[in-house]
Amino acid sequence: ADPAVQGRTTARMKRATGLAWLGGMGFTQVGETGAAIAAYGIQTWYERGLKPLFDKAARENREALLDELSYLIGDTGYDERLFMEHLDLDDISAQEAADWGTMLDRGLAAGSKFQNKWSAFNFVRGQQQKIAASGVTDKVFKKLKRGLSDQDVFEFQNDLGLDPATSVRLNQLITDGVIEFDPQLGHVSKLNLDQWPVDLAEHYGASVMRNINQVVQKSMAGESDAWMSTVGGSIMTHLKTFPMAALNKQAGRLARN
């Protein structure tokens, strides 16, 4: 059979199965919040996650920090905007667009996007990613300001990819007054990225993105075997690749800590 036809048929089957089985994705995703609490502490989770939901000042403070971080990692918490059901990357004719298969594909894609919205999955995941981005920034600079223990040095290098030399450079930003802290709550209020060395900013941005994808369980390149992307492999592992990757990540994190 034509590989292209096989691919479209497989995609339709997977999307249809998702529509049938994933109505409660938002509720399921809430469970991932526990990883954020464990990673950043209950106080940071409250200040950066729960409080902004009902406190305007806390929400504005978090969004201001995320706006700064967006220069390094892009807008955080809006992954759904990367996939638009009405966007056709291929130039197709009106006749092809009227083909029942094309209409079915568009219908399934629109249904999947709508499902992510009404199940609150997009909202929950977005909030968790925002907590992770702001939470890890608070964690890093609070610990640097306080002074790193041997455990902190180990965690920075293994969980965040920040080696001792990089930690020294980040700490120098605190000493020079580049990093600003909230005088009452103690969390980071401003990074002033325009005063950072370019290579240090890029390194830190990669570390934040790594942490977000670790805590909120987003698969990165190389974390799934190539056979899972084949027609047969994608069918056998449909709805299983996420828990398989999450299990490996969580096991690795727990083993290190």
Order of helices and strands: HHHHHHHHHHEEHHH
Radius of gyration: 21 Å
Quantity of strands, as a count: 2
Helix content: 55-70%
Helix count equals 13
Question: Sheet with the most strands?
Answer: 2 strands, antiparallel
Give the overall silhouette: elongated
Computed structural class: mainly alpha
Name the average pLDDT: 78
State which percent range the strand residues make up. Answer: under 5%
Structure characterization notes:
This protein is mainly α. The chain is 67% helix and 2% strand. The chain contains 13 helices and two strands, in the order H-H-H-H-H-H-H-H-H-H-E-E-H-H-H. The protein has a two-stranded antiparallel ribbon. Strand 1 and strand 2 form a beta hairpin. Helix 1 runs parallel beside helix 7, helix 3 packs across helix 4 and helix 8 packs across helix 11. About 4% of the residues have low confidence.
Secondary-structure topology with pairs:
Layout: H1 3-21, H2 25-30, H3 33-40, H4 42-50, H5 56-73, H6 94-97, H7 100-118, H8 121-146, H9 150-159, H10 164-175, E1 180-181, E2 188-190, H11 198-215, H12 231-236, H13 241-256
Antiparallel strand pairs: 1-2
Helix pairs in contact: 1-7, 3-4, 3-8, 4-8, 8-11
Main attributes?
257 residues, mainly alpha, two-stranded antiparallel sheet, 2 strands, 2% strand
